[in-house]
Amino acid sequence: MTELEKIAYAKGFIDKLANGINPLSGQPVGENDVVNNIRLSRCFFYVSDILRQVIDAGGIVPSRRSDRADFEISRDKLDEFPFSTDPITVTELTKRLNSLINTEVMKPLSPRSVNEWLMSIGALSEEPVGNGRTGKLPTEDGEGLGIRAEERSGKYGSYIAVLYDREAQQFVVDNVGTIAEMKRNK
C-alpha cells in the first residue's frame, strides 16, 4: 500500500467517525457515544478535510496560508463586482470582493479591515449596543454614504445589523486599494 493509499484509508475511517459510524463494523454508534460529541465530530470533519487536501495535492502537505500575498485587486476585476440592490452586510460585501481573487495565493480582505478603515475616516464608530457590549455603528457621515443600522431578531435574541446599500457598496469598492494599503501598513 502506497503512502497516499494509507492516507485515503485513514480518511475513510475519519469520515465514518465524523458521521457517527463505527469504522470497523459499519454500524451507527450509540447516541450517547463519545464519537457523537459535536466537538469531536467537528474535529473529525476538520482532519478529514486536511487529509482530502493532502490527497488532492498528491500526498504533498498543503503549505500554510501565511505565505500568501497581501490582498490586491485590479480595476478590471473590480469592474466585475456583483453589486446588490438590496442592502448587504460587510461580511457579504467582503465575500463578494474575495470571490474576485484567488484566495489560494492571496490573503482575502476581512470585514474587520473594512470596518477599521471606515472607523478611521469617521463613517463608523464604536457605540454601546446593550448588555454591556459595543458595536460598530454608522455615524452621520456613514449614513450619508449609505450605511445604516437595523435592529433584527435572531436565534439568540435581537441584534443590530449594519447594512450597506448600493452606494455604500460602491464607496467601499472604490476605496478597496486604500483599505488594503492600510491593512498592509499595520
What secondary-structure arrangement, pairings included, does this model have?
Layout: H1 3-18, H2 38-56, H3 75-78, H4 90-98, H5 111-120, E1 124-130, E2 133-138, H6 140-145, E3 147-154, E4 157-164, H7 166-174, H8 176-184
Antiparallel strand pairs: 1-2, 3-4
Helix pairs in contact: 1-2
What do these coordinates show?
The chain is α+β, with helices and mostly antiparallel strands and 186 residues long. The protein folds into 2 domains: 3-62, no CATH class; 67-184, no CATH class. The protein has helices at residues 3-18, 38-56, 75-78, 90-98, 111-120, 140-145, 166-174, 176-184, and strands at 124-130, 133-138, 147-154, 157-164. The strands form 2 sheets. A two-stranded antiparallel ribbon has the order 1-2. A two-stranded antiparallel sheet has the order 3-4. Helix 1 runs antiparallel to helix 2 (38-56).
What percentage of residues falls in helices of 4 or more residues? 40-55%
Major sheet description: 2 strands, antiparallel
Order of helices and strands: HHHHHEEHEEHH
Strand order across the biggest sheet? 1-2
- Class derived from helix and strand content: alpha+beta
- How many domains? The number is 2
Mass-distribution shape: extended
Entry summary:
With about 190 residues, the protein is of the alpha+beta class.
